[in-house]
């Protein structure tokens, strides 16, 4: 089980991601990937599609993190 982060700690990850810190990107992925995958699996009903879309969301997040 991962430690719970405060809202302030989560918000502090964004500028770190913008600077290209891999640990910050990994932390955001660890925080949200399972929840996003489960949501997409419920909506799509297809594990492969849910996994692919989860990956796509995080790839786009990394590509566009500078606009946040």
> Taking all residues together, what is the mean pLDDT?
92
Number of strands: 0
Taken from the alpha-carbon principal axes, the silhouette is globular
- Indicate the percent of residues in helices: over 70%
Please give the count of helices. Answer: 3
End-to-end Cα distance, whole Å, is 28 Å
Rg of Cα set = 13 Å
Share of residues in strands? under 5%
User: Main beta sheet, described?
Assistant: none
**Elements, N to C (H/E):** HHH
User: Which ranges are low-confidence, i.e. pLDDT below 50, for 5 or more consecutive residues?
Assistant: none
Could you give a quick summary of the protein structure above?
The protein has a domain at 32-60.
Please explain how this structure is put together:
The chain has 68 residues and is an all-alpha fold. It has a domain at 32-60. The chain has helices at residues 7-18, 22-44, 47-63. α1 (7-18) packs across α2 (22-44) and α2 runs antiparallel to α3 (47-63). 3% of the residues are buried. The model has no long low-confidence stretch (mean pLDDT 92).
Summarize this structure as a short list of keywords or feature phrases.
68 residues, mainly alpha, 3 helices
